[in-house]
Design brief:
Length: 370
């Protein structure tokens, strides 16, 4: 063997030895980090507010464009919020920032739940909603006052929570996201449109209108077309309605068109003249949105809002294969997956994280799909 070949062999052996040493050092470092923080989750990111979790792991932080996701958190439904957030976070590598709108009495409970579980690395901020914001704007009907909470209208005030964002996603708390939220965020809105919704006549959920509550897949199911204020608008009663449980908002257009003030105006007018349909179910936020966005909104892919899982017979309406393929599931309706009975509750169970304080417990009996 020539001297040149010997030198090459020696160099190769030295390179292999160097790589082995580096690998062992990395493994030792990993073991050390696991001993220091045994609860660490792979792929963790910085919390939005540093004081919630001082364990900052910069090397694994998610980067790229922030995707603002707004969700409301009512104390009695806090488990739903946690499950929804967990499903969004675990199914995406995107740089998601949750903007959680809640009432002052819920802040401490929410902070504990997020900081003491595997969601402690999620980026989030908490916004306290002031109920007086909608004072004088809600219907005085005593039947509706019992079921409608001020926090329900938080979606009308999106720019107030994230004033610097150009685009945002709003989610109801009774959803589970099975797709990558980045895909939903990249939904294109037509020029001049401030929001995108999923139409109630779309192919995925058209069969799922709420039975026994009027025709809930067009405008006449939500608005009283006998009222003069509604007549003057010239809207067609059979126009397909949409569901505001998932909203993609162009925040620039929302502000330029003063959407929030338009919605407030119709809330105030309804409080005075009772403009909503008498057969309206619990979708009290839908009518003003239908008016303001009449034929002036973009659409969401139907698989990104498969709904009515909370209505009677949803287990027969959708096959397990279809539910598995859906990108976003919405249990709108009376039957919630954390309640006593619900269809496809096993899907929700996969994402639910038990409350470390023990205050919230799903009350549902495991009786299978109905």
């Amino acid at each position: 063997m020539t001297l040149r070949r010997v030198n090459v062999v020696i160099l190769v052996l030295l390179a292999v030895a160097f790589l082995i040493i580096v690998q062992r050092n990395l493994l030792n470092l990993n073991d050390f980090l696991q001993r220091e923080n045994p609860d660490a989750v792979p792929g963790v990111i910085l919390p939005f507010e540093a004081e919630l979790s001082p364990d900052l792991r910069l090397e694994s932080a998610r980067t790229g464009e922030e995707i603002p996701v707004v969700i409301t958190a009512a104390e009695e439904r806090l488990g739903a919020v946690v499950a929804a957030m967990n499903s969004v976070y675990q199914n995406s590598k995107a740089n998601v920032v949750f903007n959680i709108v809640t009432l002052n009495d819920t802040v401490d409970h929410l902070n504990v739940w997020l900081s003491k579980t595997r969601l402690n690395n999620v980026k989030y901020k908490i916004i306290v909603f002031k109920p007086e914001t909608v004072s004088g704007k809600m219907s005085k009907d005593p039947k509706r006052l019992e079921t409608v909470k001020p926090l329900t209208f938080a979606r009308f005030y999106l720019p107030a929570y994230i004033p610097d964002a150009e685009k945002a996603i709003y989610l109801d708390d009774d959803v589970i996201v099975q797709g990558d939220i980045q895909e939903l965020y990249e939904t294109s809105l037509k020029p001049g449109h401030a929001a995108a919704f999923s139409d109630d006549c779309d192919s995925a959920s058209a069969k799922g209108f709420v039975r026994g509550a009027g025709n809930q897949n067009n405008y006449i199911g939500f608005l009283d077309f006998k009222k003069e204020a509604i007549k003057k608008l010239g809207m067609r009663a059979n126009t397909c309605s949409f569901n505001p449980g998932v909203i993609i908002a162009n925040m620039t257009e929302w502000k330029n068109q003063n959407i929030t003030r338009q919605l407030e105006r119709w809330m105030e007018l309804n409080a005075q003249e009772d403009l909503y349909s008498k057969t309206l179910a619990d979708s009290i936020t839908t009518p003003p949105l239908l008016i303001v966005f009449y034929k002036h909104h973009s659409t969401i892919d139907p698989m990104w809002h498969v709904r009515h899982l909370g209505s009677t017979g949803a287990g027969n309406r959708y096959s397990p294969q279809f539910v598995k393929a859906a990108k976003l599931l919405h249990w709108n309706g009376h039957y919630k997956p954390w309640g006593r009975t619900s269809s496809f509750s096993d899907v929700w169970d996969k994402w639910y994280i038990p409350d470390p304080t023990g205050k919230f417990h799903p009350v549902r009996r495991h009786t299978g799909d109905k």
